[in-house]
Design the sequence.
């Protein structure tokens, strides 16, 4: 069974540009969560999508947005990039059923490393 | 607001030692507590998940315990090997309707096992 895939793996952008990152979950998984990882702040939750609906959102500015498609693939977009957006962006997938939250883990992709110059 | 803390921040041990990594959390209303491993520049690999009603879980040389009342979890690694060198992260999934997909992570423990 294929794991979570993320594209691209590396990205270099300049301040003010926008970027779109893609995540393909494990087959059958309907929940996709996104996280930002930086040396200073560690891993921080961005948002979660399930069946094309955003169910949860972290404390990030509106420049960070996402969406999910009918095949469960998800994209996140960052507009007007700032230097501080340089990070490893990780997505994770799971079945996402509300009644299974106690025992269900998330499976992480390899991440997209974004460098903003 | 859930806060997760891991001690120590870094640990260096000789091969063969048994070791304990610590994780504490401030809000005991959790669905589960998870331990992950992250190799440099890579994503996270799930090691163990302890449900809120459980006290411990074991997988091979790994054993994780959970004490919700004191807000603590420990990861025990037996007979450490150089291949165990990585960053170990614990994460809590808070109970409640707004918890979908939101794991709260500690800052991690960087483990180095030298031959």
Sequence:
């Amino acid at each position: 069974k294929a794991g979570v895939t993320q594209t691209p793996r590396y990205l270099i952008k300049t301040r003010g540009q926008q970027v779109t990152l893609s995540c393909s979950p494990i087959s059958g998984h309907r929940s996709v969560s996104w996280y930002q990882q930086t040396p200073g702040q560690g891993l921080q939750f961005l948002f979660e999508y399930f069946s094309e609906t955003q169910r949860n959102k972290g404390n990030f500015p509106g420049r960070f947005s996402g969406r999910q498609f009918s095949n469960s693939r998800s994209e996140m977009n960052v507009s007007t990039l700032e230097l501080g957006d340089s990070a490893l962006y990780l997505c994770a997938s799971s079945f996402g059923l509300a009644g299974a939250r106690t025992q269900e883990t998330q499976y992480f992709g390899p991440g997209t490393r974004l460098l903003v110059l | 607001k859930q806060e997760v803390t891991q001690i120590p921040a870094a640990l260096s041990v000789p091969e063969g030692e048994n070791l304990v990594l610590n994780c504490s959390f401030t809000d005991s209303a959790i669905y589960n507590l998870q331990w992950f491993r992250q190799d440099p520049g890579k994503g996270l690999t799930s090691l163990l998940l302890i449900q809120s009603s459980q006290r411990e879980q074991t997988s091979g040389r790994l054993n994780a315990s959970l004490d919700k009342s004191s807000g603590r979890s420990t990861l025990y690694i037996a007979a450490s090997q150089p291949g165990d060198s990585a960053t170990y992260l614990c994460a809590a999934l808070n109970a409640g309707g707004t918890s979908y997909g939101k794991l709260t992570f500690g800052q991690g423990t960087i483990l180095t096992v030298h031959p």
Remarks:
- The mean pLDDT of chain B is 95.
- Chain B touches chain A at residues 31-32, 34, 36, 41-46, 49, 51-53, 89, 91, 93, 98-108 (CB under 8 Å).
